[in-house]
Amino acid sequence: MGFFQDMIAVFKKRELVFIESYKESKDVYTFVFEKEKDLTWKAGQHGLFSITHKKIKNPTKPFTIASAPSENVVRLTMKINDNPSDFKKAMVELKQGMTIGMSGPLGSLNVNDERPTILIAGGIGITPFRSIVKQIEAEGDGNKKPIHLLYMDSEKSYIFKDELDAINGSISTMYLDSRDKLHQEIDKFSNLYQNNGQYMIAGPKSMVDSISSYLQNNSISKKNIKKDAFYGY
Ligand SMILES: Cc1cc2nc3c(=O)[nH]c(=O)nc-3n(C[C@H](O)[C@H](O)[C@H](O)COP(=O)(O)OP(=O)(O)OC[C@H]3O[C@@H](n4cnc5c(N)ncnc54)[C@H](O)[C@@H]3O)c2cc1C
Questions:
Q1: Among 63, 81, 205, which residue has the most ligand 1 atoms within 8 Å of its CB, making it the best to mutate?
Q2: The CATH number of the domain where 151 resides is what?
Q3: 224 and 122 fall within a common domain
Q4: Measured between alpha carbons, how far is 216 from 104 in angstroms, rounded to an integer?
Q5: What pLDDT does 148 receive?
Q6: Which of 12, 35, 55, 111 has a Cα at 20 to 30 A from 214?
Q7: Residue 162 C-alpha to ligand 1 middle, in angstroms?
Q8: Residue 34 within a domain
Q9: Helices marked H in the chain — which ranges?
């Protein structure tokens, strides 16, 4: 998806009907919505979601669609701390049958070629990669390229761990809790595949920027790096 497709997608607005929410860990919640038949997205994409049931400041924010297109619901998984923004307070208030607005889907954080791929998640940045690996799993044995998921979480919460562990085949997941170990694993992949590999990073903006610079300092070309930087963390 390029810039112009994204521009068009922003004008595609719809309402999503809320089904349920549940806790993934101490401060991470998943919100589940009905998926209308005509709603499709590529695994890894995000939407712009709007609070409509009350008036708040900054009612629209981007969130990854954490479910795979093959799942029959829209899942949003977000960090909600003890001092939540008005947007997140309004999310927690949702009751079955209420709606939120959605524009999109948008973004190009998707695996769309046959190259070996490394997915690098920082904490809540696991959301697009959950969608990507679930979709690859749903599509079956066709995927031959190796996919390495490096899941860095200094708090060691590792949401979705059970689901990720259940996925096998060409996808391997490694759980890490320090930047040094993350660099070591990135080096293994980049020494092996260099610019023949595809590098994808998602997570808090500071983490994404630092890993992207690290890769470029190790001669990985910018065009082989895709990233989603989450603001607000
Ligand atoms: C492409 C993309 C995909 C993304 N996907 C995800 C995702 O899957 N999951 C996810 O969690 N995030 C995702 N994000 C980030 C998301 O859009 C928000 O920026 C992020 O969740 C922070 O939202 P917030 O409402 O807590 O933040 P902000 O409003 O920026 O607030 C930051 C912090 O300030 C404090 N604060 C703000 N307002 C108040 C208030 N009224 N009262 C008290 N304290 C307040 C809170 O402590 C809050 O945590 C994504 C971003 C992008 C660009």
A1: 63
A2: 3.40.50.80
A3: yes
A4: 30
A5: 95
A6: 111
A7: 26
A8: yes
A9: 3-10, 86-93, 127-139, 161-165, 179-193, 205-217
Contact 85 CB / ligand 1 (< 6 Å): yes
Residue type, 206: S
3-state DSSP helix/strand/coil % of the chain, to nearest 5: 30, 35, 35
> Could you tell me if 224 and 155 lie in one domain?
yes
Q: Is the CB of residue 228 less than 8 Å from the CB of residue 208?
A: yes
Q: Answer yes or no: is 112 within a domain.
A: no
Report which of 28, 2, 229, 13 is spatially closest to residue 121, judged by C-alpha positions: 229
Cβ of residue 127 lying under 6 Å from some atom of ligand 1: yes
Final residue before a domain boundary, out of 80, 106, 132? 106
Retrieve residue 161's tokens: 């761990």
Q: CA 146, CA 218: separation in Å to the nearest integer?
A: 21
Q: How far is the CA of 81 from the centre of ligand 1 (A)?
A: 10
**Same domain assignment for residues 33 and 59:** yes
Give the residue numbers spanning the domain of 94: 3-106
Is residue 94 a part of any domain in this protein? yes
pTM value is 0.93
Overall number of domains in the chain: 2
In-domain check, residue 111: no
Low-confidence ranges of the chain (pLDDT < 50): none
Q: What is the pLDDT of residues 142-189, one digit of tens each?
A: 667 889 999 999 999 999 999 999 987 789 999 999 999 999 999 999
143 and 197 both lie in a single domain: yes
